[in-house]
């Protein structure tokens, strides 16, 4: 597609429920990243996928968070047993393998705003 | 995780004024990037810097990669209302592949 697509754009869920957030990267981008942006905060790294390599999960805040990337394209971020502190905007980004982030930086989606009530 | 210190946190300026914001890190970076985020959108890349001392302009925006590789600044000249948004610095540390560390953001408000 023309840009990084994320769905849903907004999600309100009850505390304790599981949620799935979806990211469709730009076609041909083999690197995919998930970041979290809490109110008034910067972007917190969560997880990074690069091609067929094992993902870098070093930013996942707890074992309630997991992500997968099927077929090297679409990615799903899953949060189990959501808690109020999970409320944030979850941003997905992708980058081109040859040009790397050093040339163009990431291209971000518009994010999913998650509210846990 | 690693974080960048970005200042100021927010700025309220009048249209036409110049703006300056900066980012510092306790460790060196190989690349510095500046992004702008508007409400309801993801950050968009403004300027990328690749070597120490580099000074790069993009229209009314000018950014520099500090000599020590631990800091960067962004200047906006003659601000206009559409400059409103949150500006983030981001850096790539050696040995971290393409993973970026982001600053905490500077919220810019421009009044007429």
Characterise the protein shown here.
The complex is a heterodimer of chains A (117) and B (112). Chain A is mainly beta and 117 residues long. Chain A is 4% helix and 45% strand. In chain A, strands 2, 4, 5, 8, 9 and 10 form a six-stranded mixed β-sheet that branches. Chain A has a four-stranded antiparallel β-sheet with strand order 1-3-7-6, with no helix packed on it. The mean pLDDT of chain A is 90. In chain B, a hairpin with a 6-residue loop joins strand 4 and strand 5. In chain B, the strands form two sheets. In chain B, strands 2, 4, 5, 9, 10 and 11 form a six-stranded mixed β-sheet that branches. In chain B, strands 1-3-8-7-6 form a five-stranded antiparallel β-sheet, with no helix packed on it. Chain B is globular and about 45 Å long. Chain B starts with a strand and ends with a strand. With 112 residues, chain B is an all-beta fold. The chains are: A mainly beta (117), B mainly beta (112). At the A-B interface, strand 4, strand 5, strand 8, helix 1 and strand 9 of A face strand 4, strand 5, strand 9 and strand 10 of B.
């Amino acid at each position: 597609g023309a840009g990084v697509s994320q769905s849903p754009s907004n999600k309100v869920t009850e505390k304790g429920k599981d949620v799935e957030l979806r990211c469709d990267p730009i076609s041909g981008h083999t690197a995919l990243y998930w970041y979290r942006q809490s109110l008034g905060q910067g972007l917190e790294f969560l997880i990074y996928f690069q091609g067929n390599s094992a993902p870098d999960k070093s930013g996942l805040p707890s074992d309630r968070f997991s992500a997968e990337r099927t077929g090297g394209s679409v990615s799903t971020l899953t949060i189990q047993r959501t808690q109020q502190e999970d409320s944030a905007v979850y941003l997905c980004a992708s980058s081109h393998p040859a040009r790397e982030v050093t040339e163009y930086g990431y291209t971000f989606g518009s994010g999913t705003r998650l509210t846990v009530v | 995780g690693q974080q960048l210190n970005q200042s100021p946190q927010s700025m309220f300026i009048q249209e036409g004024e110049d703006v300056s914001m900066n980012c510092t890190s306790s460790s060196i970076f190989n690349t510095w990037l500046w992004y702008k985020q508007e409400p309801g959108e993801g950050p968009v890349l403004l300027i990328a810097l690749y070597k120490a001392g580099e000074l790069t302009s993009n229209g009314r925006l000018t950014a520099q990669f500090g000599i020590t590789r631990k800091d960067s600044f962004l200047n906006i000249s003659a601000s206009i209302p559409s400059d409103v948004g949150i500006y983030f610095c981001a850096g790539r540390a050696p040995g971290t592949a393409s993973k970026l560390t982001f600053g905490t953001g500077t919220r810019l408000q421009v009044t007429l």
